């Protein structure tokens, strides 16, 4: 989904998102209410819901979506994200008490 120049026509994307939001919100048998939001509003709503999230204890690579589908090269075109992922994984492995 998306590449460097995929979202240049913002008007088109917002117009299509408006259609999707209106379609979903018009369905009376749905318990969904789609809205535009910001990351801070979303995180506040998630925090207010008081949910319990599982803790990830293993590393992040390689990701396998199926028994023979490994995503090791998935972030190759986005080296900064790949680097952050590797650094984060290094911290996770260093702090993992199971390895000490």
UniProtKB/TrEMBL annotation:
InterPro entries: Glyco_hydro/deAcase_b/a-brl, Glyco_hydro_38_cen_sf, Glyco_hydro_38_N, Glyco_hydro_38_N_sf, Glyco_hydro_57/38_cen_sf, Glycosyl_Hydrlase_38. Keywords: Glycosidase, Hydrolase. One of its GO terms (molecular function) is alpha-mannosidase activity. This is Glycoside hydrolase family 38 N-terminal domain-containing protein. GO terms for cellular component: lysosome. The keyword tRNA processing does not apply. Pfam families: Glyco_hydro_38N (PF01074). It comes from the Eukaryota. Gene3D superfamilies: Glycoside hydrolase 38, N terminal domain (3.20.110.10), Glycoside hydrolase family 38, central domain (1.20.1270.50). Residues 4-64 form the Glycoside hydrolase family 38 N-terminal domain. It comes from Timema cristinae. One of its GO terms (biological process) is mannose metabolic process. The keyword Cell membrane does not apply.
């Amino acid at each position: 989904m998306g590449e460097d120049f995929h979202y240049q026509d913002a008007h088109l994307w917002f117009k299509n998102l408006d259609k999707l939001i209106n379609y979903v919100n018009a369905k009376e048998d749905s318990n969904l209410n789609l809205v535009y939001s910001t990351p801070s509003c979303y995180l506040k709503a998630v925090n207010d819901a008081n949910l319990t999230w599982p803790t990830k204890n293993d590393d992040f690579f390689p990701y396998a979506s199926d028994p023979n589908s490994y995503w090791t090269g998935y972030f190759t075109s986005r080296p900064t994200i790949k680097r952050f992922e590797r650094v984060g994984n290094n911290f996770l492995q260093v702090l993992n008490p199971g390895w000490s």
